[in-house]
Amino acid sequence: MQERKDLSAITSYQKKQDFITDITPIYETGKGLSRAVVEEISRSKSEPQWMLDIRLRALEAFFSKPVPTWGADLSELKFDELKYYTMPSERKVNNWDEVPKEIKETFDKLGIPEMEKKYLAGSVAQFESQGIYSRLRREWQDKGVIFTDMDTALREHPEIIKAYFGRIIPFSDNKFAALNTAVWSGGSFLYVPRGVVLDLPVQAYFRMNLSGEGQFERTLIIAEDGASVHYIEGCTAPRYSADSLHAAIVEVYVKDHARVRYTSVQNWSENVINCPTKRAWVEEEGRMEWVQGSLGSKITMTYPSSVLRGRGASASHLNVALGIGNVWKEGGAKVIHAAPETSSKVVAKSISGNGGTSIYRGLLRINPGAYNSKASVQCDALILDDHSKSNTYPHNEILEEKSAFSHEAYVGKISEEQVTYLMSRGIPEDESRSLIVLGFLDDVLREIPLEYSLEFNRLIRLEMSKLGAVG
């Protein structure tokens, strides 16, 4: 009876995530990418000339750069078959009741409005290529905090956007960064003034709804001296047969003595190829924390990076990746120690099952002159059967003698003794294996706020339900 109840709960939760909103976009560019498409995107947003100039230079870089071949097989990604800009609504609002009916029902099913009421200082919600909703509590607005979608930020705060846009991640960085810069739309802009400490998180939620589309949101976070904020990102998409592409850019500026935590829980459907670029600059005594959970998707290649530029700067990278089924899940971290007395910690947890592939790929470098710096990398992998894979590709460069570095890795399987013990206590086999997996991930999950940790637990159980009785 308990097993039926658990299965019913999992099925209900899956329906909550995996549904399609029946809505006809008011405008879309159609398939394919060209100069005319980029100009139309910029014109439809009434952007300044300098932004269009950046877009067009990025487009040239995109066409000139090859598709990466050192990781997952991206040969099935057909750029000419994607739609690069889809506008679902003409309006952007700050009241959920004013969101178009079909789109509001989508976010209601996902629980976003309820989450905002209970746990958040503010929200930004994006549907397809457009920010639909943004709101920040009045008390934080009065302190000078800005939290809105990037298109609105470009109109209302062009001087800030122009000063920071593309400094950390130039369009020349990689092919997907060039693509994002050429066709970006939506995303979120968060500015926290000097000394302001938000005691509640803010959240951005991104929903892909159509088949064969691209989502290219742009996120820019600036925490001034002594500021502190926790930014949470959620992403979902329904299942289709045609592939879609998600290629976001996230730039985070952590000024002196500031702190930013960036938590991302991505539950893309199995037709989404996910290739974002995320990077932070961390100044003196600043702290950057990345917490990332990657579930679903056909292919994921994501390596959040931190450049520790100021004395005493620090970074923490916690990553969980589930490669269950015919998927390629590649994650990791990049940390550059570019100043003295900096510190970093990377913890990567991966799980592979049903023929899935999970990979850690990381870069850690301690530059000459970054004396008294400390860094550690920990890669743990759990393989659930004999036809799944887990690989580790660390690249470590320790170029300063007066520094400390450690690297450790672990690969294992679920202990049958543990399963037998839990079953002897009346816990069904599938549930026993899920509990062991959750225990394996505990040191990362406990870094996620309670409500989001519960959500992540449900997502993991949903992924585990695909396995049946695994060994």
- Overall 3D shape: globular
Cα-atom Rg, whole angstroms?
22 Å
Summed up, the helix count is: 13
| Average pLDDT, all residues | 83
> What is the number of strand segments?
26
Q: Compute the separation of the termini in Å.
A: 23 Å
Tell me the helix content. 25-40%
User: Based on helices, strands and strand pairing, what is the structural class?
Assistant: alpha/beta
Main beta-sheet annotation: 14 strands, mixed
Strand content: 35-45%
Uncertain parts: 1-22
Tally of individual domains: 1
Q: Secondary-structure map with pairings?
A:
Blueprint: H1 2-17, E1 27-28, H2 35-44, H3 49-64, E2 86-87, H4 101-110, H5 112-119, E3 122-127, E4 130-136, H6 138-141, E5 146-149, H7 150-156, H8 158-164, H9 175-183, E6 188-192, E7 202-207, E8 214-215, E9 218-223, E10 228-236, E11 244-246, E12 249-254, E13 259-268, E14 272-274, E15 277-282, E16 287-296, E17 299-302, E18 305-308, E19 314-324, E20 328-331, E21 334-337, E22 343-353, E23 357-366, E24 373-383, E25 389-398, E26 403-412, H10 416-424, H11 429-440, H12 442-445, H13 450-465
Parallel strand pairs: 3-7, 6-9, 7-10, 8-11, 9-12, 10-13, 11-14, 12-15, 13-16, 14-17, 15-18, 16-19, 17-20, 18-21, 19-22, 20-23, 21-23, 22-24, 23-25, 24-26
Antiparallel strand pairs: 1-2, 3-4, 5-6
Structure commentary:
- By secondary structure, the chain is an alpha/beta fold.
- The chain has one domain.
- Helix content is 27%, strand content 35%.
- The chain is built from 13 helices and 26 strands.
- Strands 5, 6, 8, 9, 11, 12, 14, 15, 17, 18, 20, 21, 23 and 25 form a 14-stranded mixed sheet that branches. The protein has a ten-stranded mixed sheet with strand order 4-3-7-10-13-16-19-22-24-26. It has a two-stranded antiparallel sheet with strand order 1-2.
- The N terminus is likely disordered.
